[in-house]
């Protein structure tokens, strides 16, 4: 039996799309703007657990390399887990990232055909007044900021979606987004980004 788990927090995503990610609206059925999707996601957990393991305050990241429409699968992926995680928390987050914990991320088991592995690393996730910062030293450097709307005091948000990551997605742009790992050297500066509140659970 899979352990019961739940995480509540925030997710940042930066990808290769030149305009806002079509997957939020099409739910993966429309091709990414470049015909493929390369990107990374970073998560900060405000509150969470996996079985008896507490996940509060931890961060993790995911690298994604997708050859076409997201819903068609054949993804390559890798994971990064906060170095502050103890053994039990690491084990739980590894199962969540790989899809083995089932529940919200269980679809990874179906869509990812090449899982490159998981590294335990220092991860910085900061909520700043003008955007979100995510860093893994020598691996991912990212800062995304919301796209300006008609009312400068409010974020431009797509609400009430069926997007699996979160229902209300803040439309953003990558001010800085660079990846160097697993033979991949990517630069997504100026391209599509987003962030959203998440509440994932399983099994």
How does this structure look, described?
The protein has 203 residues and is mainly β. It has one domain (5-202). Helix content is 10%, strand content 50%. The chain has helices spanning 23-26, 87-98, 107-111, and strands at residues 5-15, 37-50, 53-54, 59-66, 75-82, 112-121, 124-128, 131-136, 140-146, 157-158, 169-181, 184-187, 192-202. Strands 1, 2, 3, 4, 5, 6, 7, 8, 9, 10, 11, 12 and 13 form a 13-stranded mixed beta sheet that branches. A hairpin with an 8-residue loop joins strand 4 (59-66) and strand 5 (75-82). The longest helix is centred in the middle third of the chain and has 12 residues, at 87-98. It is globular. The mean pLDDT is 93.
Furnish the topology, listing elements before pairings:
Blueprint: E1 5-15, H1 23-26, E2 37-50, E3 53-54, E4 59-66, E5 75-82, H2 87-98, H3 107-111, E6 112-121, E7 124-128, E8 131-136, E9 140-146, E10 157-158, E11 169-181, E12 184-187, E13 192-202
Parallel strand pairs: 5-6
Antiparallel strand pairs: 1-2, 1-13, 2-3, 2-4, 4-5, 7-8, 8-9, 9-11, 10-11, 11-12, 11-13
Any low-confidence stretches, pLDDT <50, length ≥5? none
Number of beta strands: 13
Order of helices and strands: EHEEEEHHEEEEEEEE
From the spread of the alpha carbons, the general shape counts as globular
Number of domains: 1
